[in-house]
Amino acid sequence: MGKKTKEQLLSELLVLQKELEKKVQHQDQMIRRFQMLTANESLFSQIIDFCPYPIAVFTPQGVLETVNDAFSAATGADGEELGDRKLSIYDCISNNVELDSAIRQVFAGKNQFLDNLKNPLTGFEGLKKKTELPLKGYRKAIIFPIPAEGGLIMHGVAVFTI
Amino acid sequence: MSMNDKDNQSRLSDSFQSFFNSDKEGLLAKAIEFFPYLIHVFAPDGTAVFVNEAVLQQYGITRALLENTIIGKYNILKDPTISAAIPCSLLQQAFQGETVYCPDIKVPLDTLAERYGVQDYDMEAMYQDITMFSIFNNAGKVAYIVSIQIIRRIYRGKEEIERAKEYIETHWMDAFDVKETAKAAGLSRTHFSRLFKKHTGMTPHDYYISFKIGRLKDKLSDSNLSISQAFAACGLDYNGYFAKVFKERTGLSPSQYRNKDTKR
Prior knowledge:
The complex is a heterodimer of chains A (162) and B (264). By secondary structure, chain A is an alpha+beta fold. Chain A has six helices and five strands; from the N terminus they run H-H-E-E-H-H-H-H-E-E-E. Chain A has helices spanning 6-39, 43-50, 69-75, 82-85, 89-92, 97-106; strands spanning 55-58, 64-67, 112-114, 140-147, 153-161. Chain B has a five-stranded antiparallel β-sheet with strand order 2-1-5-4-3. Chain B is elongated.
């Protein structure tokens, strides 16, 4: 094998530098997140739990991972029991094509904003156990992905607003 | 870097990763971080405690600015622009623990641009629906006040962007030429690309490709044309790279798209 030219060495060095920069950037991002998390410990779950709008976090298979108090109050879905029940959001919204499609598209990495929805939570009525609160009034939905490290989307979030 | 260092780094990275992926608090932290609209959290005395990523992006706030002038420093109750935009009684109610909904509030963009040292937000006006609610501590007292701001309307009205769109839509059969498009908009190439993306959410080239795909879809829906003819009618070669671009963008090959379309 012959000796490498100065240009080849330089270009290899550039590739190496770029890789290192990428790694440092990734590490910085992780450190920043961790700092944010420790600085605001428990604040994030409180924001979600106290939020007056129903919020659901679900996996690509549609399994409801967690819901907030407003979601539980509106539908009866118990956040504590969700893990055992493996409840699918797709089963609950099968009558709402627009919402179903938006939720699926979230896993392609796109934010979805739906307006003029008609009672998007009625599909969850089967879950009703404790409450008879009206499900009406929610006309908008914000659905967005939560990417994991490496860009893979492991969760989606749906927020229903008025 | 030695193998040991590398192993340690990799183990550390895995631990962080599993922490953020599995821990509920980590998951919810990410839900707040990636929430596409603005979230502010205030202490009961009005001081800013936390803002999410969308706030930084929307208002062009740098990390340094966030740490030096906002967190622990900015006070919503002492901000005259806020009391001018949100009725005082509503703000008081929110800080007393009530959930308050303020629809269609005009954002004081000029004040924000001046405060954050942003030259131009590239929009004429923005209106938000603001919901404020409290987080209570175990003693039932207000611990934090959260404000969620959902953008309802944005007025941009940049003439230059409209001119560029018009140029692309007139010359969509030609090869894409960013220089000519920028010239039609009356802007420099770099400024044009940045401005176009800000206003439309896509690059000029993406806009050109999307427009071209839209035209190709129209032609593919015409059953009188073969797929090759539909491509030719758009100045494209069915055997060229655009068939691949079409599949990447729509998730369907041109023939799959036609089959699906005719079944409707």
